[in-house]
Amino acid sequence: MQNDNDNTHEITLNNISFAYKQRNILENVDLVIKKGEFASIVGPNGGGKTTLLKLILGLIKPDKGVIRIFGKSPDKVRQRIGYMPQYAHLDMDFPATVMDVVLMGRLRKTSLWFSKKDKIKVLNAIDEIGMTAFINTKFNELSGGQKQRILIARALCSNPDILLLDEPTANVDQQTEKNLFSILQKLSLKMTILLVSHDLGFVSKYVKSVICVNRQVVIHPTTLINGAMIKDIYHGDLKMVRHDHRCSPEGHIHD
């Protein structure tokens, strides 16, 4: 990881708007993420969560406003951002080993060859998420939770300062989700982490703040999240706190 001395190690979005096929996805978004933040991005489907990540990455450009990562435009610092897209959007059924998949995180436009340094970085990333014993295992032979770990390792092997994760715990059981968050909690001690999640009640035990995205963006400390706020974000019923608790119409939690 690189160290800046100019206090620009943060994500800044100023008056950002983005539309797709004449449909407004995000409007007038202002957001500052400081160094070392561990935050969850929540909101209804189609609310703009993945779009927000792609704007931070510089994969898409806003129609209006300015984005700065470490004080620079996103495309200038993309190598300092690790990204794990939604697993459901990836075709990972080909016969590649764990080592092969994580090595993809070291691909560069300037070279299609992997150096000894690349392989060391990959081995370190795989070790960090506790999957060293599976280096030569075929990716498609892993469980859902193990695949998610490997995709996190792929995002980590570039030694990022910022880690962006799009639904890293989708389609895994509760114990696997807990194990993944334990890994992310340790990683958050040395990098800024933003992750998209639908299970706000679960992630609020781990993250410092919640970024609510529904065309506009509001950030809250997890201590302020309550049933009424959840209902306002999602416009409906949502699992909260325990998996057998739900938000009532009045915003209270009940069994």
Outline the secondary-structure elements.
Layout: E1 11-20, E2 23-33, E3 38-42, H1 49-57, E4 64-69, E5 81-84, H2 98-103, H3 116-128, H4 144-156, E6 162-166, H5 174-187, E7 192-196, H6 200-203, E8 209-214, E9 216-221, H7 227-234, E10 239-240, E11 242-247, E12 253-254
Parallel strand pairs: 3-7, 3-8, 5-6, 6-7
Antiparallel strand pairs: 1-2, 1-4, 8-9, 10-11, 11-12
Question: What features would you highlight for this structure?
Answer:
alpha/beta; 255 residues; 7 helices; Rossmann fold; six-stranded mixed beta sheet
Description:
With 255 residues, the protein is α/β, with parallel strands linked by helices. 26% of the residues lie in helices and 27% in strands. It has 7 helices and 12 strands. The model is unreliable at 237-255 (pLDDT under 50).
